[in-house]
Structures are given as C-alpha cells and as structure tokens.
Amino acid sequence: MSSFISFTIFGLVSGAAYAIAASGLVLTYTTTRVFNIAHGAFGMVLAFVFWDFSERQGLPLWFSLVLVLLVVAPAAGWFVSRFVTKGLGEAPVSSSLVVTVGLFVGLIGLAQQIWPPEARFVPPFFPETSFQLGDTFVTAHQLITILSSIVVAVLLYLLLNRTRIGTAMRASVDNPELLKLFGGRPERVASLSWAIGISLAGLGGVLLVSVVGLDYYALTLLVINAYAAAMLGRLKSLPLTFVGAMGLGLLTSYASAYLPTEGLLNSVRNVVPALFLFAVIIILPQAQLRIGQVKGIVSAPLPSLGKAVGWGLGLLAFVGLLAGTSSQANLLLVGTAATYAIVMLSLVLLTGYGGHVSLAQLTFAGVGALAYAKLEQPNLYGLVLSALIAAAVGGLVALPVLRLTGLYLALSTLAFASIMDKMIFQADFAFGFNGTLPAGRLSILGTAITSTGGYVFAMSVFLVLVAWGLLLLRRGVLGRMLIAMRDSPAACGTLGLDMRWFRVGLFGMSAGIAGLAGALFAGLRGTIGSADFQSFNSLPLLLLAVVFGVTSVTGAVLGGTGLMLLPVLSSGDPQLGGLLFALIGFGAVFAGRDPNGLANLIFRGGRLVESRVAPQVMSRLPDLPGRGGRRRADGDSPGDGSVEVPLSQLTNEPAPVEDQKEVGAHVAARG
Amino acid sequence: MARPSRDRTAGARLLAVATLTLALAACGSQLEPGDVSTAGGTTAVDGTVPGAGGAVPGATVPGTDPGAPVVPGTDPGTTTPGGSTGGTGATGADAGGGTEGGSAGTGENAPTGTTEAGSCEGFDNDQTGVTADTITIANASDISGPVPGIFESAQLGTRAFAAYFNSTEELCGHKLEVLALDSRADAGSDQQAYQRACDESFASVGSQSAFDFGGAGTAQACGLPDLRAYSLSTDRTNCTTCYAAYGVRPGQVPNAMPQYWVKQEPDAVEHVAMLYVNAGAAPENASAFRKAWEANGWNVDIFQGIDVSEFNYAPYVQQMKDAGIEFVNYIGPYQFTVKLQQAMAQQGFTPKVFLQDATIYDAAYVEQAGELGNGVYAYAQTNLFDDFSIAEMKLYRAWLDQVSPGAEPNIYGVYAWSAARLFVEEATKLGGKLTRKTLLAALAQVRDWTANGMHVPQDVGAKTTANCASIIQLDGGTWSKVSPGEFLCGSMSNLGS
C-alpha cells in the first residue's frame, strides 16, 4: 500500500509538469484558436536561456527566473502574437499548424545555433531539501512543481472567468469584431494570452530541465504528452485539462510500476501518453462546424494537360540524364528525393486539396515499406499490394475520428505515429527491435531493375504517374468536391454532402501514396528498418511541403528535393545545421500562411516571362515559314484554354479571361 | 489615434528589453568571463584545418613538452621518440600533417609497428582510391544529426592515426588520405556514405554509426574492406567485407565480468536490477546480458526498459527499493544514467553497486554527474585513457590533440585509432600485394588484436565478442582500475544469435 502511495505521489509530480505545459497550450488556443505545436520548443529555448543566465553568466537564481519568466518569455510571446500568429486563428487549421510546426523546427535550430552541443546541467531548486512521506521522499523541487501547477491552474481559471480581461480573452476568439465594438482590443488580448502562454512554457521548461536535462529534443517532445491532457479539456476547459494532466501522470506512473516487463504489455508502457491522446480524441463529442465562414484559398494554377505532360516528361528526361551521369552515391540521394516527393504528393492530395493535416505521412510510408519487405514480392503486384495495405491503415486511422475535423484529426495522426514508432514497428512481427528487413529491387514484367540508376529512373516514373493522377483527379468531380470540402465543410453539409466517409477515403488514398513511396524506398535501400521512418521526421516533411507549396505537384517535387538536401547541406558544417533548421523553420512561419509556397513564386515568374518577355522575343524572331508562334497570336487559340489579347487592345479594364484556377469558393471572406 | 501610438511605444519598449535580454543571453555573452579577461593575450591557432595538409596547430602533447615552432609546408617532419618534436610534414594528403608538438613511437608503437614490410614490387596504383602517391581511406561516422558530433571522436581517432603515420612513413610511396564522410545518424545516409567510400576510397577505416546497418550491403556489394571502430548491427557483423576493432557477435556475452562480481559482492548479485533504455540495441543487449549473468549466478529481480521520453525515474527507483535491490546495472546513454542517479539520490536509495558499460567512461558524464558519479563502476574494454605507461595510449592522446586541440578521448576514438593502426600494419605487410581482396583475407586472420595494449584482445577476423574487460571506478572525478591485473578474461556464454 505504501508503494501505491509512493507511485501516486510520483504520478502527481509528472502530472503537475504536464498540467503546467497543457495550461499554456489551452490558454493560447482558447483565446486565439492557435494550437501551438511549438509550446515545448519554447519551453526548451527558455530553459536554455535560464541556464545561460543562472549557470553560464552566474546571475542569481531568482533574478534569472524573473528575467526568463517575466521578461524574455512574455516578450517572446508578445512578439509571436504580433508578428507570427496574428490572425492565424481565422486561417485554415493546416496554416496554423504549419506555422507553429515552423516555429517548432526553427526554435530547435536556433537553440543548436546559439548553444552548441556540450554537457550542461541545471541543478534543481533547493537540491538539499526533501520531505519524507512514509517510505517516499518528495524533494523541494518536486513540491514546487506540484504547487506551481495548482497555482497556475487556479490563477488562470480566475483570470479567464473572474476578470474583465479574461472575459475579453474569451470573447476575442468568438468574435473579435464584436469585441472591438464593445471597446475591447483583440490584438492586445491576444498578445497578453501569448505572453502568459509562453511564460507558462518557460515555467514548464525551467521546472523540468533539472530532471530532463538540457536537450534540444527531450524537453520539446515531452510537451507532446501534454497534448493529451489539453485534449481532455477539449482545449477549452482548464479544470478538465488539470484533471487530464494529473490522470496522465498517474497513469504513466502506475504503468511503470505494475505493467509486466515483458511481452506486448511492456511495449504499451511506452505509449501510454499516445494511447491516452488517441482515446481522448475518440471519446470527444462531434465537432461543431463553424457556420458563416468560407475559408477558401486561391490555389496554385492547374497546369494544362499539355504542360503537365511536358513537364512530367521533362522531369523524366532530367532524371534519365542524372541516372546516366551521376555517381551511385548521388543517385541514392536522387532516389531519396523522389521518395520524399511522392510522400509530399500524398500531402498535396490530403492537405493541399483536402485541407486536412497529417503528422504521420512518413509512418504510412513505413507501413508501405514494411509490407513490401514482408511480402517478399519485389514486383508490381507487391508494390501495389503494399500501397493498398498502407491505404487500409490510413483509412483505419481516420475511421475512429471520422466525426472530428481539422486539429483533432491531425493530432490523432500524431498519436498514431507515436504508437507505430514505439509499439508496432518495433514488434517482432514487424521490423523487430532495432531490426531490419531485406527488400529486393523492383522487377517490372519479369525484368529486374538491378542498377541504381535504372531504379531511380523507375522511381521517378512512379512519381510522375502519381503526379499526373493527382492532376487528373483535381480536374474532375472528385477534385471539386475536395476543394469544396476544404473551403467550407459547413457549406458542403448544407448541400447534403456527407463528408465523413469521403474523408476516410481521402486519408486512405493519401496513405496509399505514401505507402507506395515507402515501398519504392525499401527497394532502393535494399535493407530497411523502423529507424528509417521515425515519426518525428514527419514534421519537417510537412514543413518543407508547405514551404515549397503543398497545393501543387511542383511544390512536392521541389519540397522532396529540399528535404533530401537539408541534412546533406548541414553535414558539410555541423554548426550550419542549426542555422539551416532555423531558416527553414522560421521561413515556414512566414510562408505557412500561403500553402502555395515557393512554387507559386515560380509560377508567377513563369507567367511574367510568358506575358512580357515571350511576346518581345517572338516579335524579334523572323517570321519563318512553318513557325506558328506569331501567326497564332493573330487569332489562333494557343490550345490551353487561355485567351490572348493583342497589346494594342489592352485597356485598364480586366480582360475577359476565364478563371481556370479554381471554381467555387475562393474568396477568403467572412460571411 | 493616440492609442495605437501608445501601443507602439509600449511595444517598442518591450521589444527593446527583449532584444537586450536575448542579446545578453545569446550573443555578446557567448564569451566566457575567462575568455574576456584573457582576450588579446592568447594566441589563436592557425587557420589550418587539422589534418588537412600542412602543419597542425601547435598543441601540448599530454605528458610531453610543446614542440618547436614550425613553418607549414616544409620538409617531412622529423620526430623524437616519445618526446617533444619539431618539424612539420607537408604531405598534401588530407590526413597529412606535421609533427609540431606531436609525438612519435618506436618499435611496436612506430606507425607501422614491428611489422615486416612486404615488398613494394608490383604495387598497383590503378585501384579505387589509390593514386601514385596517396591511398584514400574513408571514414563514415555520425557527425551531424539529432546529436551533433556524437561519433566525431571515431573520425578524429582515424585522422589522428593517419596524421601520425604520414608524419614519418609512407606505404610503398603512398601517404594516407582520409575521406571524411558523415553518416548523419541515419541509415540512408550511411548507405550513401558507403557508396561514396566504394567509389572513392580503397577501404573504410574507423567508422562508427548508430545505424550502421544502412551501408552494410553496399560495402559488401562493392567489396570494400570496412574495418570499423565498432560494429553495432547484425547486418554489419554479417557483412562479409566488414570487420571491427571492437566486434560484437549477438548472443555472445563474456563471463569474466559477472564472475568477478559474484566473487566480490556475492550478496549483492542476489538482488540485481537491470534497467535499460528502450531504444537502439539496448533492449536486445540487455536481454542477452540478463541470460548470461543469470547463468553466472546473478539473480535479476527487476528487468525493465525505460522509454527515452521518460523524465520521472522515481517510480523505477521505488520499485528497486521495494524489491530490496543491492546491485543496479543500467544500459543506456550517460545522460539517462545521470537522470536515474538523480532519482536514486532523491529517494535515498544507495545500492551497494551501480554498474554500467564503458558508455559512462566519458568526460561529459563525469562533468554532468558530479558527485552523483562517485563510486560508480564501469566495465571497460580499453585501458584507462590517462594511463601513459601504455605508449600507444600516449600517442593517441598526443595526436588527437594535434588534429583537434582540446578533444576528449573516448572509447570510440580509441577503437578508431586501433582500426587505423591495424589497417596500416596489414597493408604494410602486404606491400605490393595490397588489394581490397588481399587486405580482406589478411583481416580475416587477425586474432588477439590489442593495438599495443590500448584495449582488450579482439578477435577481429573471427568477429566475436571480446571475452575480457576491466572494472573501473569513478571517484572524485577520476577513474581508476579496481579489478586485478590488466584485464579480467574468461569464457563466453553463447546464447545463440
């Protein structure tokens, strides 16, 4: 019995840490509707700042604490709310998630850059003081952690429910315009929320750092466990969040103590927070659709059929050239880029067209690779079957949460990825712990592709085929439904469209594409293991996809190349690695609002060249017999549906050009 | 209109405070107080990249006098055995370097040892990685990645030996050039690095990667001799062209260490807790160790994995207290060892023995653990890094300091140096007959390799787990050997792979 009490006390200590972290998450979400994936990363950076002040510079502990929690953290929160997340709550969930994932990656990079790896240690508060409760010792630091969590919970509750500013905070998320009419200032309210939220992240970081250690990832990822607690309170209720945090803490402590140390239940111990998150999400009530909003985005232009075929063949020709001239080592890099590009195409379908975010695409790729290796059928049959298995798993993930939308769906994929990482992929029936599986190179119609160059070319063929398939789908009825679903689920519901099963199918299709990529990657590598598909890497994957453009095939190809190059460039100079991460992360923060990404800049550049430079060039060319260019401008249609207007007829009025980009709700307007 | 203005003013004020505070934290204050006080009074190292040709920066060799000033790019260095040296060697080779401040050995500690050099007649310069005057060896270790620099010591160890060799020796007219590759703690990158090694180097030497299965197939497919510092995965052990200075055959566990503790602490081994990090090879190893140690008379009451994301170790400590544990064995990174020891100290739990493998035989652990580390035991397969009675260890420390001043020695560096020495000695023996195939055949015959006493005997060619170890203890920040003799050696438990 005394042991049980001990485990309860330890659980409460863990729960207190989760509670502080989850409270900050809930506060920022409740008041600004931005789910801050980077909450833990802020805590990590602030813990480093605390170490810098207190240990490296030798400032008094209390002064360091005051500086971090009352100056640096609020200032960071204010900065983020004013320059990063302003208006993000009204943006699609995909945008707000990507921006905070950008902060997540950027902050890790920043920390690596400012504080290069070395042994650092932050001692606990009052290290010599502890209190004995029966057989258990509670240190002063642990007691401070528990008390802090209670104080934070009470103060936040009072702030939100008993003060004017708290009421304004809650009002600002429901209708900031109305708040303005009543004399409130939503921006100031948001700034205050973020200032407090980041201070809480800092408090969590400072309290945990002596236990977790100063590590870029451990502190950052630890807070992901707190998502489950926050989710129990549906990201709104602070009391329920507190209960969820304490419940999670107790659960993990009891699991450590009482679960068997071998067999399946042993692996359950490691995924308790993820299972808790998944369970909480499943029991959440039906998500309410937000009425009166159309959150459309102007997508990247769809290429004409001719252009799609031309660019696809051009890409194949380019890869063919590389296959013939590059070294084997570089070809492996090209193959890796092709893998990432195909996975990103799965995100184009899911996020770019469908408006849903998945944080588990690499895990689906892992499922495809595992199936491919296990099937031992290195041929088209095995490849297709692997993709189908991954698609079925993707559907299964979406199935339990088909009542939910946006953020909840994304977080369920995060929980799924974590469970796969620590439980399924490591199991004996899968890769095995630290294990690998051999995977043969693909053979097509009985012809084995043994050379790396040939295999990489085959991979790029699949890349192009998937891309063409997506473009065809986008042009059809299904594509229009996807866009409608993305832009306004409420409007779709009003029109009688049941989006729930459609969403399951979409998830399945997207996972299938990722699975195809994983299977091809397995063949490229020859040996494949769970380490190749760590769930954490799905975050930079999503980030790069958005930075380069998650609404277009071009963005996926560029993003895949970028993701492949990122570690290559940073390995040239390890110190540069942190800087690159910071650049990519913070770049995504500003690019995240436009999911068309850098690819759109290329499209604009292309159109500019087409409209301004090309006519001038053409006009200077001699009108040779057989050249159709200049004659075509005299009246023939270019064949891609566009209308060309002679320069002499241009007026200030917009030309009657039929908009080919999108049909339907493209207006980012509020009704 | 006044309000926005006031907002801006308040905002600007806040931003100014934040900027000032962050600048204090991040920029100017990166200088240590000590650095500030000595600014302008210290001599910067020269701009030469260590081991990148020309002279290496001047450095004090532990236990020797600093060398005389040198001019980079002059004659090949001359050396004085065991003492301060001068001169420099401009070899033009990547791993070349002078011997400024360096050290040189004689006899078995000479760059080629006591090996009788084979005739250079018929040396084939038309081999991959071989030119008229250089032989390129690749080293693919985890340099960047989630834990930057995690196995950089293996690359430094290889470069250190290459620099030592180049300072005085040639292999049939060839200097050694090190192709430094980064396996980036990723299996795919390891494969890519090995593909480059296949294409651009004669052999791979001293590599160390967390996910070393990635390039195993690639190395075997191209016939690349891969003489690693450590071999971690089953794939790498099974690779027919791969050997390691520190080999591990899954399922083979030495008995000497557990038997030592049965004699020393017969009561404590009746109540053992084995805790391991639930990641990488640790669970597999822990399971094998448990079987072997129980076969040697230990009684393991608690056998439990701890997830990498766990931060509250108190429940595990409570379990140990409840079970009356007297002997704790932990398998995992030293950072997690410190967490466990913190929780043990907080809960007032002091077992008779806290034992870990040589992972904690690392300066970073000593620094981070502080007083918590006092009394901890480790079983090591190397001699003490500070044992300068071992001339080879002294050489390693000296040349490590040459290629990377201030770098700390560790087990990966020792075995990388060892691998590089083994490569050189075998290649020297082969002389003009040196090819990838002949080198592989030679490596297959290597037994009882100790790199002149740096580490326990390793049956490199048989790819078996070493059956020796020494027990060392940390006290007051210093490690000392507590087991008798040089190493404890004994039989092996074969548990099957």
Characterise this structure.
Chain A is mostly helical and 671 residues long. Chain A contains 26 helices and eight strands. Chain A has helices at residues 2-32, 39-56, 61-83, 93-114, 140-162, 164-174, 176-181, 186-212, 218-232, 238-258, 264-269, 272-283, 305-325, 328-353, 361-375, 380-398, 406-424, 452-475, 477-487, 489-494, 499-525, 538-548, 553-572, 574-591, 597-620, 629-633; strands spanning 130-133, 136-139, 293-295, 436-438, 443-444, 447-448, 527-529, 668-670. In chain B, strands 7, 8, 9, 10, 11, 12, 13 and 14 form an eight-stranded mixed sheet that branches. In chain B, strands 2-1-3-4-5 form a five-stranded parallel sheet, sandwiched between helices. A two-stranded antiparallel sheet of chain B has the order 6-15. In chain B, helix 4 packs parallel to helix 5. Residues 1-100 of chain B have low confidence and may be disordered. Chain B is of the alpha/beta class and 497 residues long. Chain B folds into two domains: 16-251 and 390-443, Rossmann fold (3-Layer(aba) Sandwich), CATH 3.40.50; 253-385 and 468-494, Response regulator (Rossmann fold, 3-Layer(aba) Sandwich). In chain B, strand 9, helix 10 (334-346) and strand 10 form a beta-alpha-beta unit. Chain B is built from 14 helices and 15 strands. The termini of chain B are far apart. At the A-B interface, helix 1, helix 2, helix 3, strand 2 and helix 8 of A face helix 1, helix 4, helix 5, strand 8 and helix 9 of B.
